[in-house]
Structure formats: structure tokens, C-alpha cells
Amino acid sequence: MKTNYRFIILLLIATAFLTYTSSCHNDKVTNCREVVNGHEGYEVWAGNTPFFQYTNHYDYFYNIDKNGYTLIGSSTTTKNFNTGNYKYYIIVSKYYSCIDAIQFNDSSYYDFEQGYILYTGLSDYRKMLGAPDGIFGKFGGKDLCPPPVPVGMVSSFPDGNTSSFNGYITDDTTITSRGRGLTVFVGSGCQ
After folding, report:
1. Intra-chain end-to-end CA distance of the chain, in Å
2. Which of 50, 75, 86, 116 has the fewest CB atoms within 10 Å, i.e. the most exposed one?
3. Global pTM?
């Protein structure tokens, strides 16, 4: 009889534990989505290493904050950024933003004709090309937590699985040759 009570008590404890851990997991997902929905915006980073040349460039760009680039600034609205003497730039979205255009100090715009363009699959980049036209491209994902390292890719970082940002945009044309800065034009309603 005592054995049955012990078994029942152990079963109840195991059930309570599984219920608790399951609810904690669901809370984590819910909380992440709540955080995402409350944090529109983008960041501009600059550095001197052309990570787009690396086979595992996704690891670097999704985690640019861990790879020797300097944060130039962040915003939720249209803003001009002075990138100093750094050679390369990257615009990242922690969660989501709506970008219309990217203009450089030499008056050129982000476009296919400038060189190699690199962007995440979470960037509606075709709507961001050329001069501002009021058509905003989705950048990042409003309903997504920052993604894991893409399938088939091996993370270069200790955490192994997580990315810091949902989206990125960069290319291989130097900022220096375009006047050491850029303006990001943003809007709303693209998500």
C-alpha cells in the first residue's frame, strides 16, 4: 500500500514539474513576441571587415554586435548617421522596422548598381531601392523573435544557436567613397 502512495506522489510531482516547465516555455514565447511588438527601430553599425566575403557571413551579420563593428546610432524615424572613417556599414533590425530608402552622403541611393548587395531574407529589399517613394519595405519581422542560426550553418559564437538581430542590410561599396555617412528613410505600416 505504501508503495502505491509513493508512486502516486512521484507521479503528481512529475506532472506538476512538466506543467510548470511547459507554462514557462509558453510565457517565454509570449513575452518575446510582446517585446518584439513594442520595439520598432533599426541600428547602424560600421567597421573595417568585409564579412560578406566569408562563407558563414550570416553568423557575422546577424550578430554584428559581437564582431568588432561599432554602433553608430539607432532610431525609429528617418535619420542621418555620420559613420566616420569606417569602411563598411550594416543596418540591422533588432526586431522590425519599415525602410523606404538609404541615401549616402555622395547623394547616391542603395541600389543594385552600387555593387554587391547583401540582405537577410527578412528584408523586403526591393521596396528599399532607389530614392524615397513612400513605399516602405519590411525590415526584420514584427511577429518574430530574433531567429536562430540558419539551418545548415554552424554558429561561430559560444551560444551556438541565437542571433542578435532579425534583419540586416549591407553591401560591399565603401562608405568612405560615398562621404562617410548615410541617411535611412523610414515610414510605418509595412508590417
Report:
1. 61
2. 116
3. 0.73
